[in-house]
Amino acid sequence: MKKVLFSLLLISFIVPRMNSQETVQKTDTKWFEDARFGMFVHFGPYSVLGAGEWVMNTRPVKGKDYMRLQTLFNPQAFDAKEWVRIAKDAGMKYITFTSRHHDGFSNWDTKQSDWNIMNTPYGKDLVKQLSDECQKQDMKLVLYYSLLDWMRTDYQYETGRTGKAAGRTGKSDWLSYINFMKAQLTELLTNYEIAGIWFDGHWDQTEDENRTDHTTHVDWHYPEIYKLIHTLRPGCLVANNHHLPPFAGEDYQIFERDVPGENKSGYSGQEVSRLPLETCETINGAWGFNITDDNFKSTKELLHLLIRTAGTGANLLLNVGPMPDGQIQPECVQRLQEMGKWMDKYGYTIYGTEQGFVKPQTWGAVTKKDKTYYIHILDKDTKSITLNIPDIKSAKWINVSAQPEWEKDKKTGDVTFSFAGGLDETDSIIEIVLK
Protein backbone atom coordinates (compact mmCIF):
# COMPACT_ATOMS: atom_id res chain seq x y z
CA MET A 1 0.00 0.00 0.00
CA LYS A 2 2.84 2.41 0.84
CA LYS A 3 4.40 1.75 -2.58
CA VAL A 4 1.08 2.54 -4.26
CA LEU A 5 0.74 5.81 -2.37
CA PHE A 6 4.30 6.78 -3.25
CA SER A 7 3.65 6.06 -6.93
CA LEU A 8 0.51 8.17 -6.86
CA LEU A 9 2.48 11.04 -5.38
CA LEU A 10 5.03 10.79 -8.16
CA ILE A 11 2.49 10.96 -10.97
CA SER A 12 0.10 13.50 -9.44
CA PHE A 13 0.44 17.26 -9.28
CA ILE A 14 1.01 19.04 -6.00
CA VAL A 15 -0.16 22.63 -5.76
CA PRO A 16 2.46 24.71 -3.90
CA ARG A 17 1.31 26.38 -0.69
CA MET A 18 0.93 29.82 -2.23
CA ASN A 19 -1.55 31.71 -4.33
CA SER A 20 -1.19 33.50 -7.65
CA GLN A 21 -1.88 36.93 -6.21
CA GLU A 22 1.02 39.32 -5.99
CA THR A 23 1.98 40.39 -2.51
CA VAL A 24 2.85 43.88 -1.37
CA GLN A 25 6.53 44.43 -2.09
CA LYS A 26 8.61 44.59 1.05
CA THR A 27 12.00 44.66 -0.60
CA ASP A 28 13.41 47.89 -2.03
CA THR A 29 13.64 47.42 -5.79
CA LYS A 30 14.58 50.97 -6.76
CA TRP A 31 18.17 50.16 -7.70
CA PHE A 32 16.89 47.38 -9.93
CA GLU A 33 14.24 49.52 -11.64
CA ASP A 34 16.73 52.33 -12.25
CA ALA A 35 19.39 49.98 -13.67
CA ARG A 36 17.67 48.93 -16.92
CA PHE A 37 20.77 47.07 -18.16
CA GLY A 38 22.64 44.10 -16.70
CA MET A 39 25.06 41.35 -17.69
CA PHE A 40 24.10 37.67 -17.52
CA VAL A 41 27.02 35.19 -17.27
CA HIS A 42 26.69 31.44 -17.92
CA PHE A 43 29.91 29.72 -16.91
CA GLY A 44 30.78 26.26 -15.64
CA PRO A 45 32.38 22.93 -16.58
CA TYR A 46 30.05 22.67 -19.60
CA SER A 47 32.12 25.50 -21.11
CA VAL A 48 34.94 22.98 -21.63
CA LEU A 49 32.85 20.99 -24.13
CA GLY A 50 31.97 24.12 -26.12
CA ALA A 51 28.42 22.98 -26.85
CA GLY A 52 26.30 25.15 -24.57
CA GLU A 53 25.16 24.82 -20.97
CA TRP A 54 22.63 22.05 -21.76
CA VAL A 55 25.22 19.67 -23.25
CA MET A 56 24.85 17.07 -20.48
CA ASN A 57 21.15 16.77 -21.33
CA THR A 58 21.25 17.26 -25.10
CA ARG A 59 24.24 15.10 -26.08
CA PRO A 60 23.43 13.34 -23.64
CA VAL A 61 26.22 12.53 -21.15
CA LYS A 62 25.87 10.19 -18.18
CA GLY A 63 26.61 11.73 -14.80
CA LYS A 64 29.64 9.53 -14.09
CA ASP A 65 31.21 10.57 -17.39
CA TYR A 66 30.26 14.23 -17.05
CA MET A 67 32.07 14.40 -13.69
CA ARG A 68 35.37 14.01 -15.55
CA LEU A 69 35.01 17.68 -16.45
CA GLN A 70 35.97 18.50 -12.88
CA THR A 71 39.57 17.59 -13.73
CA LEU A 72 39.42 19.60 -16.99
CA PHE A 73 37.72 22.82 -15.89
CA ASN A 74 40.59 25.23 -15.23
CA PRO A 75 39.69 28.89 -16.00
CA GLN A 76 43.17 30.27 -15.39
CA ALA A 77 42.45 33.43 -17.42
CA PHE A 78 39.42 34.37 -15.30
CA ASP A 79 39.76 37.95 -14.11
CA ALA A 80 36.87 39.29 -12.04
CA LYS A 81 38.20 42.83 -12.41
CA GLU A 82 38.10 42.50 -16.20
CA TRP A 83 34.58 41.04 -16.23
CA VAL A 84 33.24 43.89 -14.10
CA ARG A 85 35.09 46.47 -16.20
CA ILE A 86 33.55 45.08 -19.40
CA ALA A 87 30.09 45.29 -17.83
CA LYS A 88 30.63 48.84 -16.57
CA ASP A 89 32.03 50.01 -19.90
CA ALA A 90 28.88 48.67 -21.56
CA GLY A 91 26.72 50.77 -19.25
CA MET A 92 25.51 47.78 -17.27
CA LYS A 93 24.55 48.24 -13.61
CA TYR A 94 24.48 44.65 -12.33
CA ILE A 95 25.79 41.16 -13.08
CA THR A 96 23.80 37.94 -12.73
CA PHE A 97 26.20 35.00 -12.47
CA THR A 98 25.49 31.25 -12.57
CA SER A 99 26.49 30.09 -9.11
CA ARG A 100 25.04 26.67 -10.03
CA HIS A 101 23.47 25.51 -13.29
CA HIS A 102 21.38 22.41 -14.06
CA ASP A 103 24.43 20.13 -14.01
CA GLY A 104 24.60 20.84 -10.27
CA PHE A 105 28.20 22.10 -10.30
CA SER A 106 28.81 24.85 -7.73
CA ASN A 107 31.07 27.77 -8.66
CA TRP A 108 31.85 28.52 -5.00
CA ASP A 109 33.43 26.91 -1.95
CA THR A 110 30.34 25.00 -0.87
CA LYS A 111 30.49 22.53 2.01
CA GLN A 112 27.36 20.73 0.80
CA SER A 113 28.89 18.91 -2.17
CA ASP A 114 32.30 17.91 -3.52
CA TRP A 115 31.08 18.69 -7.04
CA ASN A 116 32.42 22.27 -6.99
CA ILE A 117 35.09 24.68 -8.24
CA MET A 118 37.42 24.04 -5.30
CA ASN A 119 38.02 20.46 -6.48
CA THR A 120 39.14 21.48 -9.97
CA PRO A 121 42.74 22.23 -11.03
CA TYR A 122 41.76 25.91 -10.71
CA GLY A 123 40.73 25.50 -7.07
CA LYS A 124 39.55 29.06 -6.37
CA ASP A 125 36.12 30.43 -5.45
CA LEU A 126 34.67 32.21 -8.51
CA VAL A 127 31.68 33.67 -6.63
CA LYS A 128 33.96 35.13 -3.94
CA GLN A 129 36.23 36.82 -6.46
CA LEU A 130 33.30 38.25 -8.39
CA SER A 131 31.48 39.36 -5.23
CA ASP A 132 34.56 41.16 -3.92
CA GLU A 133 35.23 42.88 -7.24
CA CYS A 134 31.62 43.97 -7.67
CA GLN A 135 31.83 45.63 -4.26
CA LYS A 136 35.01 47.46 -5.25
CA GLN A 137 33.53 48.73 -8.51
CA ASP A 138 30.03 49.52 -7.17
CA MET A 139 28.37 46.83 -9.26
CA LYS A 140 25.38 44.84 -7.97
CA LEU A 141 25.73 41.03 -8.03
CA VAL A 142 22.77 38.67 -8.45
CA LEU A 143 23.33 34.92 -8.26
CA TYR A 144 21.58 32.50 -10.61
CA TYR A 145 20.72 29.26 -8.79
CA SER A 146 19.31 26.17 -10.52
CA LEU A 147 16.41 24.51 -8.77
CA LEU A 148 16.77 21.33 -10.78
CA ASP A 149 19.77 19.02 -10.71
CA TRP A 150 20.86 16.47 -13.32
CA MET A 151 23.44 14.85 -11.01
CA ARG A 152 21.94 14.40 -7.54
CA THR A 153 19.92 11.28 -6.78
CA ASP A 154 17.83 12.96 -4.08
CA TYR A 155 16.38 15.36 -6.68
CA GLN A 156 13.01 13.94 -7.81
CA TYR A 157 14.27 13.05 -11.26
CA GLU A 158 11.52 10.44 -11.75
CA THR A 159 9.00 13.20 -12.52
CA GLY A 160 11.43 15.66 -14.10
CA ARG A 161 11.31 16.40 -17.82
CA THR A 162 15.10 16.72 -18.27
CA GLY A 163 18.23 14.84 -17.21
CA LYS A 164 16.67 11.48 -18.08
CA ALA A 165 19.91 9.99 -19.47
CA ALA A 166 22.09 10.87 -16.45
CA GLY A 167 22.06 7.25 -15.27
CA ARG A 168 20.40 7.72 -11.87
CA THR A 169 18.77 4.58 -10.49
CA GLY A 170 18.39 5.16 -6.75
CA LYS A 171 15.20 6.34 -5.11
CA SER A 172 14.95 10.13 -4.78
CA ASP A 173 14.48 11.89 -1.44
CA TRP A 174 12.76 15.23 -1.97
CA LEU A 175 13.05 16.61 1.55
CA SER A 176 16.77 15.80 1.52
CA TYR A 177 17.10 17.80 -1.70
CA ILE A 178 15.15 20.76 -0.31
CA ASN A 179 17.42 20.81 2.76
CA PHE A 180 20.46 20.66 0.49
CA MET A 181 19.25 23.72 -1.42
CA LYS A 182 18.50 25.61 1.78
CA ALA A 183 22.00 24.88 3.07
CA GLN A 184 23.61 26.06 -0.16
CA LEU A 185 21.50 29.20 -0.29
CA THR A 186 22.44 29.94 3.32
CA GLU A 187 26.12 29.81 2.29
CA LEU A 188 25.55 32.20 -0.60
CA LEU A 189 23.47 34.61 1.47
CA THR A 190 25.83 34.77 4.44
CA ASN A 191 29.30 34.44 2.89
CA TYR A 192 28.98 36.75 -0.11
CA GLU A 193 27.76 40.29 -0.79
CA ILE A 194 24.85 39.79 -3.17
CA ALA A 195 21.79 41.77 -4.25
CA GLY A 196 19.53 38.99 -5.52
CA ILE A 197 18.84 35.30 -6.14
CA TRP A 198 17.69 34.30 -9.65
CA PHE A 199 16.05 30.85 -9.68
CA ASP A 200 15.62 28.66 -12.75
CA GLY A 201 14.37 25.14 -13.38
CA HIS A 202 10.87 25.10 -11.86
CA TRP A 203 9.50 24.17 -15.30
CA ASP A 204 11.28 20.78 -15.08
CA GLN A 205 8.48 19.59 -12.79
CA THR A 206 5.51 20.99 -14.75
CA GLU A 207 3.62 20.06 -17.87
CA ASP A 208 5.43 21.31 -20.96
CA GLU A 209 4.19 24.64 -22.37
CA ASN A 210 2.37 25.49 -19.13
CA ARG A 211 2.33 29.29 -18.79
CA THR A 212 -0.60 29.90 -16.45
CA ASP A 213 -1.04 27.07 -13.93
CA HIS A 214 1.07 27.00 -10.76
CA THR A 215 0.58 23.26 -10.20
CA THR A 216 3.72 21.14 -10.19
CA HIS A 217 4.84 17.56 -9.54
CA VAL A 218 6.68 18.62 -6.38
CA ASP A 219 6.36 21.08 -3.52
CA TRP A 220 9.28 23.46 -4.00
CA HIS A 221 8.80 24.91 -0.49
CA TYR A 222 8.98 28.42 -1.93
CA PRO A 223 7.42 30.16 1.11
CA GLU A 224 10.19 28.70 3.30
CA ILE A 225 12.96 29.36 0.77
CA TYR A 226 11.86 32.91 -0.01
CA LYS A 227 11.49 33.65 3.71
CA LEU A 228 14.98 32.25 4.30
CA ILE A 229 16.41 34.63 1.68
CA HIS A 230 14.59 37.71 2.93
CA THR A 231 15.47 36.87 6.54
CA LEU A 232 19.18 36.21 6.07
CA ARG A 233 19.60 39.16 3.69
CA PRO A 234 16.59 41.51 3.91
CA GLY A 235 17.57 43.60 0.88
CA CYS A 236 18.09 40.58 -1.38
CA LEU A 237 15.72 40.41 -4.34
CA VAL A 238 14.06 37.14 -5.37
CA ALA A 239 13.20 36.23 -8.96
CA ASN A 240 12.19 32.93 -10.54
CA ASN A 241 12.34 32.06 -14.23
CA HIS A 242 9.37 29.69 -14.03
CA HIS A 243 7.60 31.15 -17.11
CA LEU A 244 4.46 31.71 -15.01
CA PRO A 245 2.70 34.63 -13.32
CA PRO A 246 4.67 35.64 -10.19
CA PHE A 247 4.45 33.65 -6.97
CA ALA A 248 4.09 35.27 -3.56
CA GLY A 249 7.45 36.50 -2.26
CA GLU A 250 9.03 37.28 -5.64
CA ASP A 251 10.38 40.78 -6.19
CA TYR A 252 10.57 40.96 -9.99
CA GLN A 253 9.26 39.03 -12.97
CA ILE A 254 11.46 37.44 -15.64
CA PHE A 255 10.74 37.02 -19.36
CA GLU A 256 13.08 34.68 -21.22
CA ARG A 257 14.08 35.79 -24.74
CA ASP A 258 11.10 38.14 -24.98
CA VAL A 259 10.19 41.75 -24.42
CA PRO A 260 7.44 41.62 -21.73
CA GLY A 261 4.04 41.28 -23.35
CA GLU A 262 5.44 39.66 -26.49
CA ASN A 263 5.80 35.92 -26.90
CA LYS A 264 7.96 35.42 -29.96
CA SER A 265 10.16 32.79 -28.29
CA GLY A 266 7.30 30.75 -26.85
CA TYR A 267 8.54 31.05 -23.26
CA SER A 268 6.63 34.18 -22.25
CA GLY A 269 2.92 33.63 -22.65
CA GLN A 270 2.31 34.49 -19.01
CA GLU A 271 0.59 37.73 -18.03
CA VAL A 272 2.71 40.81 -17.35
CA SER A 273 2.51 41.64 -13.65
CA ARG A 274 2.89 44.90 -11.77
CA LEU A 275 6.22 43.78 -10.37
CA PRO A 276 9.46 45.19 -11.79
CA LEU A 277 10.30 43.38 -15.03
CA GLU A 278 13.34 41.85 -16.71
CA THR A 279 14.04 40.37 -20.14
CA CYS A 280 16.99 37.97 -20.49
CA GLU A 281 18.53 37.34 -23.90
CA THR A 282 21.72 36.10 -25.55
CA ILE A 283 24.21 37.93 -27.78
CA ASN A 284 24.47 34.92 -30.09
CA GLY A 285 22.20 31.87 -29.78
CA ALA A 286 23.60 30.07 -26.74
CA TRP A 287 23.78 30.91 -23.04
CA GLY A 288 26.90 28.87 -22.30
CA PHE A 289 29.97 28.87 -24.57
CA ASN A 290 29.23 27.19 -27.90
CA ILE A 291 32.26 27.06 -30.18
CA THR A 292 30.18 26.63 -33.36
CA ASP A 293 27.66 29.41 -32.61
CA ASP A 294 28.82 32.48 -34.54
CA ASN A 295 25.31 33.89 -35.02
CA PHE A 296 26.09 37.07 -33.08
CA LYS A 297 23.44 39.77 -33.07
CA SER A 298 24.62 43.13 -34.36
CA THR A 299 25.15 46.06 -32.02
CA LYS A 300 22.15 47.74 -33.66
CA GLU A 301 19.94 44.71 -32.95
CA LEU A 302 21.08 44.63 -29.34
CA LEU A 303 20.49 48.34 -28.84
CA HIS A 304 17.01 48.00 -30.33
CA LEU A 305 16.32 45.16 -27.91
CA LEU A 306 17.52 47.29 -24.98
CA ILE A 307 15.39 50.27 -26.06
CA ARG A 308 12.28 48.20 -26.72
CA THR A 309 12.69 46.46 -23.36
CA ALA A 310 13.05 49.81 -21.59
CA GLY A 311 9.94 50.88 -23.53
CA THR A 312 7.98 48.36 -21.43
CA GLY A 313 9.54 49.61 -18.20
CA ALA A 314 11.78 46.53 -18.00
CA ASN A 315 15.49 45.72 -17.67
CA LEU A 316 17.55 43.89 -20.27
CA LEU A 317 19.80 41.16 -18.85
CA LEU A 318 22.18 40.45 -21.75
CA ASN A 319 24.14 37.21 -21.65
CA VAL A 320 27.76 36.33 -22.27
CA GLY A 321 29.13 32.76 -22.19
CA PRO A 322 32.85 32.96 -21.37
CA MET A 323 35.30 30.53 -22.96
CA PRO A 324 36.68 27.64 -20.85
CA ASP A 325 39.74 29.69 -19.86
CA GLY A 326 37.49 32.34 -18.28
CA GLN A 327 37.76 35.04 -20.94
CA ILE A 328 34.62 36.61 -22.42
CA GLN A 329 34.44 36.06 -26.17
CA PRO A 330 35.92 38.99 -28.14
CA GLU A 331 32.81 39.22 -30.33
CA CYS A 332 30.73 39.85 -27.22
CA VAL A 333 33.22 42.35 -25.81
CA GLN A 334 33.20 44.33 -29.06
CA ARG A 335 29.41 44.62 -29.11
CA LEU A 336 29.27 45.56 -25.43
CA GLN A 337 31.87 48.27 -25.97
CA GLU A 338 29.84 49.70 -28.84
CA MET A 339 26.66 49.60 -26.76
CA GLY A 340 28.55 51.39 -23.99
CA LYS A 341 29.50 54.25 -26.32
CA TRP A 342 25.84 54.72 -27.20
CA MET A 343 24.81 54.54 -23.54
CA ASP A 344 27.42 57.18 -22.65
CA LYS A 345 25.56 59.60 -24.94
CA TYR A 346 21.95 58.56 -24.59
CA GLY A 347 21.75 56.36 -21.50
CA TYR A 348 19.76 59.04 -19.68
CA THR A 349 16.83 58.16 -21.98
CA ILE A 350 16.99 54.57 -20.64
CA TYR A 351 18.19 54.57 -17.01
CA GLY A 352 15.49 55.17 -14.41
CA THR A 353 12.72 55.40 -17.01
CA GLU A 354 9.26 53.86 -17.26
CA GLN A 355 7.07 52.86 -20.19
CA GLY A 356 5.89 55.92 -22.11
CA PHE A 357 2.63 56.68 -23.90
CA VAL A 358 2.42 53.28 -25.60
CA LYS A 359 3.97 49.84 -25.57
CA PRO A 360 6.76 49.27 -28.12
CA GLN A 361 5.52 49.61 -31.69
CA THR A 362 6.88 48.53 -35.08
CA TRP A 363 8.44 51.98 -35.47
CA GLY A 364 10.08 52.05 -32.01
CA ALA A 365 9.37 52.72 -28.33
CA VAL A 366 8.77 55.47 -25.77
CA THR A 367 10.42 55.87 -22.38
CA LYS A 368 9.36 58.26 -19.62
CA LYS A 369 11.01 60.11 -16.74
CA ASP A 370 8.65 62.37 -14.78
CA LYS A 371 7.16 64.84 -17.32
CA THR A 372 9.80 64.14 -19.94
CA TYR A 373 9.26 61.48 -22.59
CA TYR A 374 11.73 60.08 -25.10
CA ILE A 375 10.36 58.84 -28.41
CA HIS A 376 12.82 56.36 -29.93
CA ILE A 377 12.36 55.98 -33.69
CA LEU A 378 14.09 52.68 -34.43
CA ASP A 379 12.85 52.24 -38.00
CA LYS A 380 14.61 54.98 -40.01
CA ASP A 381 12.08 54.57 -42.85
CA THR A 382 9.20 55.70 -40.64
CA LYS A 383 7.26 58.52 -42.29
CA SER A 384 5.06 59.59 -39.39
CA ILE A 385 3.71 58.55 -36.00
CA THR A 386 0.67 59.71 -34.05
CA LEU A 387 0.49 59.72 -30.27
CA ASN A 388 -2.08 61.08 -27.87
CA ILE A 389 -0.24 63.88 -26.00
CA PRO A 390 -2.86 66.52 -25.03
CA ASP A 391 -0.50 68.29 -22.59
CA ILE A 392 2.52 68.59 -24.88
CA LYS A 393 4.67 71.62 -24.09
CA SER A 394 7.70 71.19 -26.32
CA ALA A 395 9.44 68.73 -28.62
CA LYS A 396 13.02 68.58 -29.88
CA TRP A 397 15.39 66.14 -31.53
CA ILE A 398 18.22 64.87 -29.37
CA ASN A 399 20.39 63.40 -32.11
CA VAL A 400 18.97 64.64 -35.41
CA SER A 401 20.04 68.02 -36.86
CA ALA A 402 16.61 69.52 -37.44
CA GLN A 403 13.48 70.76 -35.72
CA PRO A 404 10.82 68.05 -35.43
CA GLU A 405 7.71 68.65 -37.52
CA TRP A 406 4.52 68.03 -35.57
CA GLU A 407 0.84 68.96 -35.55
CA LYS A 408 -1.65 68.69 -32.72
CA ASP A 409 -5.35 67.93 -33.05
CA LYS A 410 -6.85 70.15 -30.35
CA LYS A 411 -10.04 68.10 -30.19
CA THR A 412 -8.47 64.71 -29.64
CA GLY A 413 -5.07 65.67 -28.25
CA ASP A 414 -3.39 63.54 -30.91
CA VAL A 415 0.05 64.75 -31.99
CA THR A 416 1.40 63.68 -35.38
CA PHE A 417 5.13 63.78 -36.03
CA SER A 418 6.25 63.77 -39.67
CA PHE A 419 9.68 62.69 -40.89
CA ALA A 420 11.19 63.61 -44.24
CA GLY A 421 14.17 61.27 -44.04
CA GLY A 422 17.54 61.95 -42.47
CA LEU A 423 16.86 59.78 -39.44
CA ASP A 424 19.64 58.13 -37.47
CA GLU A 425 20.57 54.63 -38.58
CA THR A 426 20.15 53.17 -35.08
CA ASP A 427 17.78 55.39 -33.09
CA SER A 428 16.37 58.88 -33.62
CA ILE A 429 15.24 60.36 -30.31
CA ILE A 430 12.64 63.08 -29.77
CA GLU A 431 12.47 64.63 -26.31
CA ILE A 432 8.94 65.60 -25.28
CA VAL A 433 8.17 67.77 -22.26
CA LEU A 434 4.63 68.00 -20.88
CA LYS A 435 3.04 71.06 -19.33
- Biggest beta-sheet profile: 8 strands, parallel
- Overall shape: elongated
Supply the number of helical segments: 10
Q: What percent of residues adopt helix (DSSP H or I)?
A: 10-25%
Describe what you observe in this structure.
With 435 residues, this protein is of the alpha/beta class. The protein has 2 domains: 2-353, Alpha-Beta Barrel (TIM Barrel); 364-434. The protein has helices at residues 2-11, 30-35, 55-58, 63-66, 80-89, 126-136, 174-191, 222-232, 299-310, 330-346, and strands at residues 37-41, 94-100, 140-146, 196-200, 237-241, 253-256, 277-282, 314-320, 354-355, 364-369, 372-377, 384-388, 392-397, 405-408, 414-418, 428-434. Strands 5-4-3-2-1-8-7-6 form an 8-stranded parallel sheet. The protein is elongated and about 75 Å long. The model is unreliable at 1-25 (pLDDT under 50).
Tell me the layout of helices and strands.
Elements: H1 2-11, H2 30-35, E1 37-41, H3 55-58, H4 63-66, H5 80-89, E2 94-100, H6 126-136, E3 140-146, H7 174-191, E4 196-200, H8 222-232, E5 237-241, E6 253-256, E7 277-282, H9 299-310, E8 314-320, H10 330-346, E9 354-355, E10 364-369, E11 372-377, E12 384-388, E13 392-397, E14 405-408, E15 414-418, E16 428-434
Parallel strand pairs: 1-2, 1-8, 2-3, 3-4, 4-5, 6-7, 7-8
Antiparallel strand pairs: 9-10, 10-11, 11-16, 12-15, 13-16, 14-15
Helix pairs in contact: 5-6, 5-10, 7-8, 9-10
